[in-house]
Write a structure and sequence with these properties.
Bound molecules: zinc ion
Mean pLDDT: 92
Oligomer: single chain
CATH superfamily: Glycoside hydrolase/deacetylase
Distance between the termini: 44 Å
Shape: globular
Length: 299
């Protein structure tokens, strides 16, 4: 049976870019609500432990690591892989190449120091590596990462590159640098793309469909969740006037998501990124997508 990749983006519910964009005030709300992250991460660790000691990759936001160093240590002590989710939760296209590279270096350094393990994997906030930021690939490599999971191969209102592969591939710069890219699970049917690997898509789709697609996959698929999505106590309180879509994105399915994950973990095999990266890097069949842009290299 295929073992899929299980990953978590470790951040607070109010860190998400779409939520910030919609309401503009969630930062304040989050500060007023209090930070639920340590308890949410502990709940994930218990769930994985109850499932027989499943190991996962946790892409931790640098600002979260700075605020909660004990969370990173607990994850590493539990034998899980630590990855990097950037320093702040900014979209890559909204920061300069210099600031982006600095943030990656700071966050990776902090995570390595706290975890005592080499941090090889990176995931950009909100899947924001795409054609618009060709320089980002060189920045991720220059910051010391050897694999990446930052490209969403389907179109969404905030991110996505629907023409890029749904299976692992090499992202190359015109200067000849290569970065192993592992996108999240997306089913492609002709021109249609159906994301099912995590987040809101995973919560909205029928459990039987997610289970079927993962069970029938012939190679490991990348799944991802946020600890706050597994908190049955919905995020909030949300500011007055928060649009329905923003409420739905934060609240839909969270009451049932722990149970869903428990069922998936008992039915299917899951593993960390680092368990699959070596063999993928050596696979000569992986396709290459070459990014071309005026600004190919991070400064
Ligand atoms: Zn994130």
């Amino acid at each position: 049976m295929v073992s899929h990749v299980l990953s978590f983006d470790v951040e607070n519910w109010f860190d998400g870019n779409l939520h910030r964009r919609w309401t503009g005030r969630l930062g304040e709300t989050g500060a007023a609500t209090g930070d639920r992250l340590p308890a949410e991460v502990d709940a994930v660790l218990s769930l994985l432990s109850e499932a027989g000691g499943v190991k996962a990759t946790f892409f931790v936001l640098g600002s979260v690591a700075a605020a909660h160093p004990e969370v990173v240590r607990r994850l590493a002590d539990g034998g899980h892989e630590i990855g990097c989710h950037g320093m702040e939760h900014d979209l890559v296209r909204e920061v300069t190449p210099v600031r982006y590279l600095e943030g990656l270096r700071r966050a990776r350094g902090l995570l390595q120091e706290l975890s005592g393990q080499p941090v090889a994997g990176h995931r950009a906030p909100s899947w924001s590596i795409d054609r618009r930021v060709p320089w980002a690939v060189a920045a991720v490599i220059d910051a010391g990462f050897s694999y990446d999971s930052s490209v969403f191969p389907a179109r969404t209102p905030l991110y996505g590159e629907p023409s890029w592969p749904v299976a692992p591939f090499w992202l190359a710069t015109s200067a000849g640098k290569h970065l192993l890219e592992l996108p999240p699970a997306v089913l492609r049917l002709g021109p249609l793309s159906l994301p099912y690997g995590g987040g809101l898509y995973w919560r909205v789709l029928p459990f039987a469909l997610v289970h079927l697609l993962l069970r029938r996959a012939s190679s490991p698929r990348v799944t991802y969740l946020h600890p706050w999505e597994l908190n049955p106590e919905p995020a909030g309180p949300l500011p007055a006037g928060t649009p329905f879509a923003a409420r739905a994105a934060l609240h839909w399915g969270v009451k049932h998501s722990r149970g869903r994950l428990r069922r998936l973990l008992s039915a299917l095999g899951f593993q960390e990124f680092r368990a699959v990266v070596g063999s993928l890097s050596a696979d000569p069949r992986l396709p290459t997508v070459t990014l071309r842009g005026l600004e190919d290299e991070a400064a």
